[in-house]
Write a structure and sequence with these properties.
heterodimer; A: 271 residues; Ubiquitin-like (UB roll); Fumarate Reductase Iron-sulfur Protein, Chain B, domain 2; two-stranded antiparallel ribbon; 12% strand; elongated; B: 648 residues; alpha/beta; Flavocytochrome C3, Chain A, domain 1; Methane Monooxygenase Hydroxylase, Chain G, domain 1; five-stranded mixed β-sheet; five-stranded parallel β-sheet; binds iron/sulfur cluster; binds FE2/S2 (inorganic) cluster
Chain lengths: 271, 648
């Protein structure tokens, strides 16, 4: 979060009075999953510091369309930091210099005259679809392997029959805020999906409702991430540093603890 | 002489609710009377569900669990992205856990009243009944709701009510509820009962012998246009707020599925009922692509004010108490800052129209937490609203702990949608519409924390119970591409895609979208008048004409082409905008979010005309250049008596 150190600006400050920035963008262009990609340089002018990073890319794209060029493909949807659809490498950092989503990064984080490199997530389980858009369905398959509680509609007991200590519920919530953006994978030198998987294992493992499937869940989700080709976790911590939701490394310790316990208890992944 | 804007057709009525029993019995009676489908037969039946938000995700998962073959479609990469994920505040349920006088009947009553007496009693009562089951279901799924130290669920109160019945998960309730539905859906995908179609957009409905039998969809990655068949089709594609270009909806939220179904015969009900949410971050500049909501739960502790004097540009902290106008507390002493959304929005507009607005362009009011911070301390405020304050700081670069937030109303939700009966079936047999995509439960104004409730009610509990009556006659004869209706629909989609690519004009789809949105906001937004609506109705056909002759879409149809996707959506928004204006013009009364300048009380409140307008306006599409046909569904109030809403 970026509350300015010198206190809040006056709220009658007119943003239109600020001078626009001129920037050089070096953008990864790749016409399809099998095409060869390359960095292409573009200029954008008069960029307001109050624009979001994606609004800056909108400006570029409107420009490209008018010139008859193909606009840069990038994923986005909610533009309020919650859907997890956006995400690019900005100057080599997942989601850029702030710990937030790409859509919530604002151009006030850059200076007039900057050159900005923009690339897709780089990880083989996330193949490029086009330009900056990648296929993250591997994450859904990890959830399919066990990231749920089996409770068919209509079979639930009265809500207050399940008490959850506030401490556990709050910690479960913190883990459950993972938006599935994939920045953790992109930031990790091993392209490991451990933080994503650990967030779900932690969320459900902290709830009393999640106990019956706890052992199977962890072994199956971990087996699935291996099958998808994600790398192993060596506890470097780049994932958590890049995570826009601040998912902590503690979730990974918890996953490891659960995994060991599950294996000792004889749980084995479904083949 | 002006062309006729619409014609009036036969009235329409909901015939499915068993009105011969008392209101509290109708839902169980309906379930009892409806036919069931034998578990062994369910495997032979296919249901298409379009959309994976709270309504679509929960419906697809539940139908899959029940044993139907489900085909689920969504335009994003993962079902977890659907825009329900962004709902912040909470979900209502009549649990009465606070022992503060809440009940199913009270939730029913308040929702009818909050909707300004323009919703159906039967549907709303059912919604209130089902609300309690939703919480049970979500808790069992592991949704991490806010809890108290004793481990019980916490509640808060929300705009438009005086009881605490809102369940929440910090400021991310929609996200957590959606993940519950998403995980249930992924479980069914793994089990093989749900077939997934990611990054696929529905572009037409296939109607065979009077029944909805499938869809035409485009794979957004490969560009392939294909047909998909089923025994029933469920649309759960959300609302159409993006007709205004700037809204709190996701960038991809669109009206295409419901609009194209409308053109195939589904009536569109109350299109002019749109909700303008009072607490959004104000617009900053022309480049703005979307607006961000600040949960109205903030109104529990924040106080709304503007300077008493026009044009007062002092730093808000330097404006003494005596020179501030806490206008909601002044005008509505009993509800104060917690008045319903439509009232809070219009009050903000009024003070800004008087020249007392704050911030760039004078389009903003203060939402001030100084009192709350003084009373509760910063840590307590931070614990409650921290993520919202962070979001505000991130977007505006201002510190809301130190200086009041600036907020302004923005388009947030559409109460209108495809017409459905009590079974949630549209006027096309076999096509069901759930969640925000239908018009059902909110009348002319939706209360806070009711959208999540309705989405999950429809998807988990209502649709799976009512669809069996229809499917009891299935499976129907096999249909394939050789059927003339299917071939025609496929051809129709291919033609319109090609047409957009061929124009090669000089304006981008986004530029048309921006122009349309601004027109709609100015002419058919928070306040509408005969004059403004007629202006819009003159202008929209010109925009449409220019769109189809001067559009520029680069690239081709056989690849990932986001400009082409947007162009198709904008084409539909332009047509829908026209129907919205016709509906708004024909409804010469004010009700809920529909405020007609000509119809107000002496002190500026919405003035309904129950004599002439206590009906649902269900519009039938007619081929180009023919005016739409209005079918009226009379609203009868057996239980809640029609009254002027008052929050004073
Ligand atoms: S753990 Fe963080 S970085 Fe990884 S997917 Fe979740 S939100 Fe994104
Ligand atoms: S676009 Fe939704 S998180 Fe960025």
């Amino acid at each position: 979060m970026t509350i300015t150190q010198d206190g809040a600006r006056s709220s009658v400050d007119h943003s239109s009075e600020k001078r626009g920035m001129n920037l050089t963008l070096r953008v990864w262009r790749q016409n399809g999953p099998t095409a060869k990609g390359k960095m292409v340089t573009y200029k954008v002018t008069d960029i307001s510091p109050d624009m979001s990073f994606l609004e800056m890319l909108d400006v570029l794209n409107e420009q490209l369309i008018m010139e008859g060029d193909d606009p840069v493909a990038f994923d986005h949807d909610c533009r309020e930091g919650i859907c997890g659809m956006c995400g690019v490498m900005i100057n080599g950092q997942a989601h850029g210099p702030q710990q937030t989503t790409t859509c919530q990064l604002h151009m006030r984080s850059f200076k007039d005259g900057d050159t900005i490199d923009i690339e897709p997530w780089r990880a083989s389980p996330f193949p490029v679809i086009k330009d900056l858009a990648v296929d993250r369905r591997a994450f859904d398959r990890i959830i399919q392997a066990g990231g749920y509680i089996s409770v068919p509609t209509g079979t639930a007991p009265e809500a207050h029959s399940i008490l959850v200590p506030k401490k556990d519920s709050d910690a479960a919530f913190d883990a459950a805020t993972c938006i599935g953006c994939g920045a953790c994978v992109a930031a990790c030198p091993n392209a490991s999906s451990m933080l994503f998987t650990a967030a779900k294992v932690t969320h459900l493992g902290l709830m009393p409702q999640g106990q019956p499937e706890r052992n199977d869940r962890v072994v199956n989700m971990v087996a699935q991430q291996d099958r998808e080709g994600f790398g192993g976790c060596t506890n470097i911590g780049e994932c958590s540093a890049a995570c826009p939701k601040g998912i902590s490394m503690e979730t990974i310790s918890r996953l490891n603890h659960d995994l060991l316990g599950a294996l000792r208890a004889g749980a084995r992944p479904k083949s | 002489m002006p062309l006729e804007l619409f014609t009036v057709g036969d009235p329409i009525a909901d015939t499915k609710a068993p009105s011969d029993v008392a209101i509290g019995e109708r839902w169980s009676e309906r379930r009892f009377r409806g036919r069931l489908v034998n578990p062994a037969n369910r495997r032979k039946m296919t249901v298409i569900v379009v959309g994976t938000g709270l309504a679509g995700g929960s419906a697809a998962a539940t139908l899959g669990e029940a044993g139907y073959k489900v085909k689920s479609f969504w335009y994003q990469d993962s079902p977890r992205r659907a825009h329900s994920v962004a709902a912040q505040g909470g979900i209502n349920a009549a649990k009465n856990y606070r022992n503060d006088g809440d009940s199913v009947y009270r939730l029913f009553y308040e929702t009818i009243k909050g909707g300004d007496f323009r919703s159906r009693e039967n549907n709303v009562h059912r919604l209130a009944e089902v609300s309690v089951n939703i919480i049970d279901q979500c808790v069992a799924q592991g949704v991490p709701f806010a809890r108290e130290y004793g481990g019980l669920l916490d509640n808060r109160s929300f705009g438009g009510t005086q009881v605490s019945r809102t369940f929440y998960a910090r400021g991310q309730t929609g996200q957590q509820l959606l993940y519950g539905a998403y995980q249930a859906l992924e479980r069914q995908i793994a089990a093989g009962s749900v077939e997934q179609h990611a990054r696929t957009e529905m572009l037409d409905l296939i109607v065979v012998d009077g029944r909805a039998r499938g869809i035409v969809a485009r794979d957004l990655v490969t560009g392939e246009i294909s047909t998909h068949y089923a025994d029933a089709v469920v649309l759960a594609t959300g609302g159409y707020g993006n007709v205004f270009y700037l809204s709190t909806n996701a960038m991809g939220s669109n009206a295409t599925a419901i609009w194209r179904a409308h053109k195939r015969g589904a009536y569109f009900a109350n299109p002019c009922y749109t909700q303008i949410h009072p607490t959004c971050i104000p617009v900053k500049g022309d480049y703005q692509s979307k607006l961000t909501l600040m949960s109205e739960s903030l109104r529990n502790d924040g106080r709304v004010w503007v300077p008493k004097e026009r044009g007062d540009t002092r730093d808000p902290r330097e404006i003494p108490e005596g020179e501030r106008d806490y206008y909601l507390e002044r005008i509505y002493p009993s509800f104060g800052n917690l008045v319903p959304r439509d009232i809070a929005s219009r009050a903000a507009k009024n003070v800004c129209d008087e020249g007392r607005g704050v911030g760039p362009g004078g389009l903003g009011v203060y939402l001030d937490f100084a009192d709350a911070i003084g009373r509760l301390g910063r840590p307590a405020v931070q614990a409650k609203y921290g993520n919202l304050f962070d979001m505000y700081a991130q977007i505006t670069g201002e510190d809301p702990y130190a200086t009041p937030m600036r907020i302004y109303p923005a388009v947030h939700y559409t109460m209108g949608g495809l017409w459905v009966d009590y079974d949630l079936q549209s006027t096309i047999p076999g096509m069901f519409v759930i969640g925000e995509a239908n018009f059902s439960d909110h009348g002319a104004n939706r209360l806070g924390a009711s959208a999540l409730m309705q989405g999950l009610a429809d998807g988990y509990f209502v649709l799976p119970a009512t669809i069996t009556e229809y499917l009891a006659d299935a499976p129907f004869d096999t249909v394939d591409d050789s059927h003339p209706a299917a071939g025609e629909a496929l051809q129709n989609v291919q033609n319109s895609v090609q047409r957009m690519l061929d124009i090669n004009g000089t304006r981008t789809p986004a530029s048309f979208h921006r122009e349309l949105g601004k027109l709609m906001w100015d002419m058919c937004g928070m306040e509408r008048s005969e004059e403004s609506l007629r202006k819009a109705l003159d202008r929209i056909p010109e925009i449409r004409q220019e769109f189809w002759t001067n559009l520029k879409v680069t690239g081709d149809g056989q690849s990932f082409n986001q400009t082409l996707e947007l162009a198709g959506r904008v084409a539909d928004f332009i047509e829908l905008a026209e129907l919205m204006c016709v509906d708004a013009l024909h409804r010469r009364e004010s009700c809920g979010g529909h405020f007609r300048a000509e119809s107000q009380t002496p002190d500026g409140e919405a003035l309904r005309d129950d004599e002439n307008f206590a009906y649902v306006a269900a519009w039938e599409w007619t081929p180009e250049n023919e005016p739409p046909v209005l079918h009226k569904e009379d609203l009868e109030y057996e239980y809640v008596h029609l009254a002027q809403r008052s929050y004073k």
